[in-house]
Amino acid sequence: MVMSTARTLPNSRTEPDGSVVIRVLSYNIRSMRDDEEALARVIRACRPDLVFVQEAPRFFRWRKHAARLAARSELVMLSGGATAAGPMLLCSLRATVERTEDVLLPLTPGLHRRGFATAVVRIGGARIGLLSCHLSLQTDERYAQAGMLLDRLAALETPHAIAAGDINERPGGRSFIRLAAELQDCWAAGPWGGEYTSTPADPHQRIDAIFATSGVEVLACGVPSGLMGITDRDLRAATDHLPVLAALRIPAGE
């Protein structure tokens, strides 16, 4: 399913009461093994306040590679990378960082190590918990990790929270359903742009998603195809997933 991008995606702003509109991007970047310039152009064009990255560089000089992406994207590193087994968080200078924590999940022999990059930030008068994830390819492990995600998000103890990443499962799968039962699936709440995230050459499935707690208002969410500054050529060259971009309104408060 493809939605129109004719409806304007709201810009980031802080309201007089301290509530904020933020742009949130989730993106599997395949360890930056593709066209880095195209990747940075896509991220910059989205003008995100927060970026939930999956498959960040994890090996030799991984911090240098991640810092280079942040700089080219006009952002700063927040948390994650190799220390979270791949998930990473980037942010704009709008965010004031309260704390960060990289979490390694239990290792199943024979499968890849998985983890969460988490943080608590303040933007305007809003305090927000963040979690970037890349769930398992194995069905039972993925379902268990979905439960760990919900527990970890609750443990951040923030009034509002966002989790985003590569779920490795379509919305009808039991792990996706487990997350959507407790969190808002932002595409379902405010569809905008494109729906399918895999693959860029042949988008046919939605396996990447942004979720938010109930107090967050979803203004728009989807693949930003057709957004000013983003070309199909860059989307195909940047990595093997399409990004998901959301505009969210978050109330002020402690």
Summary keywords:
single chain, about 250 residues, alpha+beta, seven-stranded mixed beta sheet, six-stranded mixed beta sheet
Structure description:
With 254 residues, the protein is of the alpha+beta class. It contains six helices and 13 strands. The strands form two sheets. Strands 1, 2, 3, 4, 5, 12 and 13 form a seven-stranded mixed beta sheet that branches. Strands 6-7-8-9-11-10 form a six-stranded mixed beta sheet. Helix 1 (36-46) packs across helix 6 and helix 3 (139-155) packs parallel to helix 4 (174-182). It is globular, with a radius of gyration of 16 Å. The mean pLDDT is 96.
Helix-strand blueprint:
Layout: E1 13-14, E2 20-28, H1 36-46, E3 50-54, H2 62-72, E4 76-80, E5 88-91, E6 96-104, E7 115-123, E8 126-134, H3 139-155, E9 160-166, H4 174-182, E10 184-185, H5 186-189, E11 208-212, E12 217-222, H6 232-238, E13 244-250
Parallel strand pairs: 2-3, 8-9
Antiparallel strand pairs: 1-2, 2-13, 3-5, 4-5, 6-7, 7-8, 9-11, 10-11, 12-13
Brief write-up:
About 25% of the residues lie in helices and about 30% in strands. With about 250 residues, the chain is α+β, with helices and mostly antiparallel strands. A hairpin with a 5-residue loop joins strand 1 and strand 2.
Q: What is the helix/strand order?
A: EEHEHEEEEEHEHEHEEHE
Beta strand %: 25-35%
Structural class: alpha+beta
Give the beta-strand count: 13
CA radius of gyration is 16 Å
The overall pLDDT average reads: 96
Number of distinct helices: 6
Largest sheet: 7 strands, mixed
- Please give the share of residues in helix: 10-25%
